[in-house]
Amino acid sequence: MHRVRGVAALLLASCLTLGAVQAAPGDRQADPLDSPRWGDMRKEFFPAKARVLFDSRVKVSAPLTAENALNVPVSVDASALPDATEVLVFADFNPITRIVRFRPEGAHPGLGFRIKLQQSTPVRAAVKTRDGVWHVGGTWVNTTGGGCTLPSAGSASPEWQKRLGEVSSRVWERKEGGERIRLRIIHPEDTGLAAGVPAFYIQELKLTDEQGAPLMHIEGFEPLAENPVFSVDIPAARTAAGYRVSGRDNNGNAISAVIEK
Fold first, then answer.
1. Measured between alpha carbons, how far is 215 from 53 in angstroms, rounded to an integer?
2. How far is CA 58 from CA 54, 126, 246, in A?
3. Antiparallel, parallel or unpaired: β 59-61 and 72-77
């Protein structure tokens, strides 16, 4: 009788262990931001069998309360993770959830930028490491909203056409070593959600040194703020006498500039 109970217990334990192995690790974790949309985000952005883990080493910084929903500063820092290959930033409650994707190709795995928000929402960064695991961090941002469905100021003025794609930049030394590059690009960045105003936004930017060696690849989406600003950190081993930025928007307009110190 005792042997039967022992075998049954062993079989039950084996079944439980099998179930634990088959379950995706991210599905067993409670969302630290307690968003009812997390399940939808999980399905939208990650393959069903992908390992998706909430990870406090992924830092997302933004104001707790954003006074201007059209221009919310956000920074992502994944430098505490080894071998970060790709970073996707998204907002659970935006009508267009995807914000920006970037690949550090020589730069530090982090990026500063500004976004539009339609309402209060978690803003998250998912970092893929070389082993294929996605590490997710984020923060709640409260706002009065409406940022995604308002037209840009530039779309109502003919002046932006004369300066479209114009790049201004600054480079300075970081106290931690290396350099920081800040770029500002003149562009309306319209989401396509305002009546009569089509989507018009920067789709791709490539940052290289003056020899063409890649440092950062940025893929933009509609919720980036008008006249977007990007901050990229360059490690000391990859600093150069100068840098270049190139790219295009969704209408095929080219962006190209030399960044001098």
1. 27
2. 9, 8, 28
3. antiparallel
- Return the SS3 of 219: strand
Q: Considering all CA atoms of the chain, what is the largest pairwise distance in Å, rounded to the nearest integer?
A: 88
> At 172, which amino acid appears?
W
Whether 247 and 260 have beta carbons less than 8 Å apart is answered as no
Say if CB 51 and CB 132 are below 8 A apart.
yes
How many C-beta atoms lie closer than 10 Å to residue 192's C-beta?
14
Residue 15: is it exposed, middle or buried by C-beta count within 10 angstroms (0-12/13-18/19+)?
exposed
On whether the CB atoms of residues 103 and 83 are closer than 8 A, the answer is no
Q: Are 26 and 53 in contact (CB under 8 A)?
A: yes
Angle at 170 between CA 234 and CA 63, to 5 degrees: 80
Residue 87 near residue 136, CB atoms below 8 Å: no
47-67 as b/e: b if 16+ CB within 10 A: eeebbbebbeebbbebeeebe
pTM above 0.85, yes or no: yes
Residue-wise pLDDT tens digits, 123-170: 999 999 999 999 999 999 999 889 999 999 877 777 778 899 999 999
Query: What digits encode the pLDDT tens for the residues 192-239?
Result: 999 999 999 999 999 999 999 999 999 999 999 999 999 999 999 999
Q: What is the 3-state secondary structure (H, E, C) of 106-122?
A: CCCCEEEEEECCCCCEE
First to last CA, the chain: 82
